[in-house]
Specification:
Chain lengths: 273, 256
């Protein structure tokens, strides 16, 4: 390709240009697809191909949502739902992580409790929701506890898998440098398990949200879940859609939150090859 | 000033209920400041012996003495480096080499200050803040050895540290190691199965037998120092090499 070279300049390949170009074009495409879906939804309900009674429409959802914010309690409900979800997620994931890490300290202890951990994982926690509401009331606590139960075992299992993946030779090397058990724990075990716990953050935040919503469905005075249930009972399908859209937005925001958390936790590490 | 003595150490394992001897009664004395190598076929218990010296496993019999003090089953008295570099992938090279100091309770800042000139002087300048996976195998072994040196024990055990490197890098690393040994005046016990490497580096070579491992012969390497690539062509070098080759071939034949 000598004809392509201007002024005898050598051709220097720069892959970053192509990557940024691809990224930009993908972004435009992503936005475009979203816009088309919303437009089609609106258009098809207007011309009557989709029944707007069931499907509502983007414009109606925005209008109903605005009304729910200004005249209703949508914002309080949102705060209630996101509050119990995040609290349950943080407590459940942290407790599960600590539980999983604790298995490193004693082989006997981990052998005794491992089957119980797996058994507890097998219980459909959501099926326990009615009991939990009776035990902890219809308030905030029962939702947090549901979100907590949904997340704790997933985190514990991930942390335990991380513990089992610890390189024995690294342990040996540290011991030869005079390390005690606590040094090995802090300098090898905890850093080894961080990617394992990070990998389940996204799963856990959606599990926590599911727990909270089910808790609100069972019995609650507040929350998006309660709003959806109420709207369904009075056949206000537009309001059901508002609830669903708000939950989706909440879910996206929390997803971005976990992405940020991942970055924070993985800082100073090179990407694993 | 350190003298390491291995007094009648052995190690037996049970395998399918039958006791197996990994290391037969071994006596070995490593004098202060010497570079001593152990050479032998694979599976001859060299690593078992090292694990016993480093206090990581319990010998079936015998004791390890450092300057006359019994250090059997106590870790942390000698520097120990394995064939794998065992750098922590989430730490920079600088933070990897200071880990021994950290364990000893020296603040990170102070430890880093001590480590920086070492990295610079011994071929890792410019890589201080890189992560291990950005470095070549030879560079990673350098970092591993500097970590052991910073731990600052008089006796250092090196278990086939250059076993995984290509021939050219290996030669470079051997010279690098000799330079370090000269500068720090450490006592080194070195395991290898490479005859050239053993002769080139050592003052004294112990030949191990095949399972069960025990010392079969000891050879004094009376080649002048400093050594260089020219040493490899020295007549005396070739004589020693021939001698060792014969001994190791005997071992291979008897093990078949």
């Amino acid at each position: 390709m000598p004809d392509k070279l201007k002024n005898n300049e050598p051709f220097i390949e720069d892959p970053t240009i192509q990557t940024t170009k691809l990224g930009r074009r993908a972004f435009v495409g992503q936005v475009l697809v979203g816009v088309i879906i919303i437009f089609l939804w609106e258009f098809l309900t207007r011309i009557g191909w989709l029944d707007s009674y069931y499907w509502s429409s983007p414009s109606t959802i925005v209008r109903t949502g605005w009304k729910a914010i200004t005249q209703g309690t949508l914002l309080q409900d949102l705060a209630y739902t996101s509050g119990s979800t995040i609290l349950g997620f943080v407590l459940g994931t942290a407790a599960g992580y600590i539980l999983g890490l604790s298995f490193w300290w004693s082989e006997l202890y981990s052998r005794i409790f491992e089957p119980y951990m797996i058994a507890f994982n097998a219980i459909p926690k959501l099926a326990l929701a009615p009991v939990l509401v009776i035990m902890f009331g219809i308030g905030f606590d029962s939702k947090v506890i549901l979100a907590f139960l949904m997340t704790i075992i997933v985190a514990a299992i991930a942390a335990y898998s991380g513990v089992q993946s610890v390189d024995r030779d690294l342990e040996k090397m540290l011991v030869s440098l005079g390390a005690k058990r606590r040094h090995v724990f802090m300098k090898v075990v905890v850093p080894t398990t961080i990617p394992w716990i990070v990998s389940i953050l996204k799963i856990n935040i959606s599990l926590a949200l599911a727990g909270t919503i089910v808790g609100e469905f069972i019995s609650s005075r507040q929350g998006i879940g309660r709003m959806i249930l109420y709207a369904g009972q009075v056949l206000d399908i537009d309001l059901v859609w508002v609830g669903v859209v708000v939950l989706s937005l909440l879910s996206i925001v929390m997803y971005l939150g976990t992405v940020w958390l991942e970055h924070a936790l993985m800082k100073g590490r090179t990407p694993k090859s | 000033m350190s003298e390491l003595e291995i007094a009648g150490c052995s190690k037996y394992y049970k395998k399918n209920g039958v006791p197996m001897c990994a290391l037969a009664d071994t006596d070995l004395r490593v004098e202060n400041g010497r570079f001593v190598s152990i050479i032998g076929p694979s599976g001859c218990g060299k690593s078992t012996l090292f694990n016993i010296i480093a206090g990581l496993i319990k010998p079936s019999s015998g004791r390890i003495l450092l300057d006359g003090k019994d250090i059997t089953q106590e870790s942390g008295h000698v520097g120990y480096m394995l064939q794998k570099d065992l750098l922590l992938p989430w730490r920079s090279i600088l933070d990897n080499v200071i880990i021994g100091l950290e364990i000893r309770g020296i603040p990170k800042k102070e430890a880093r200050k001590r480590a920086l000139p070492m990295l610079k002087n011994y071929g890792l300048g410019g890589f201080e803040y890189d992560h291990p996976d950005a470095l070549s195998g030879g560079m990673r072994q350098r970092a591993g050895l500097i970590r052991t040196l910073l731990y600052d024990k008089d006796v250092i055990l090196l278990d086939e540290p250059f076993g995984a490197l290509d021939a050219q890098t290996r030669m470079q690393m051997q010279n690098w190691l000799l330079e370090i040994w000269k500068d720090f005046k450490k006592t080194i016990l070195f395991v290898t199965h490479d005859i050239d490497e053993a002769i080139y580096l050592s003052d004294e070579i112990h030949v191990f037998t095949h399972r069960p491992g025990k010392i079969k012969a000891t050879i004094e390497v009376d080649l002048p120092r400093p050594r260089s690539e020219k040493t490899l062509m020295n007549d005396r070098f070739l004589t020693l090499k021939k001698e060792l080759l014969l001994m190791l071939r005997e071992e291979r034949v008897s093990s078949d």
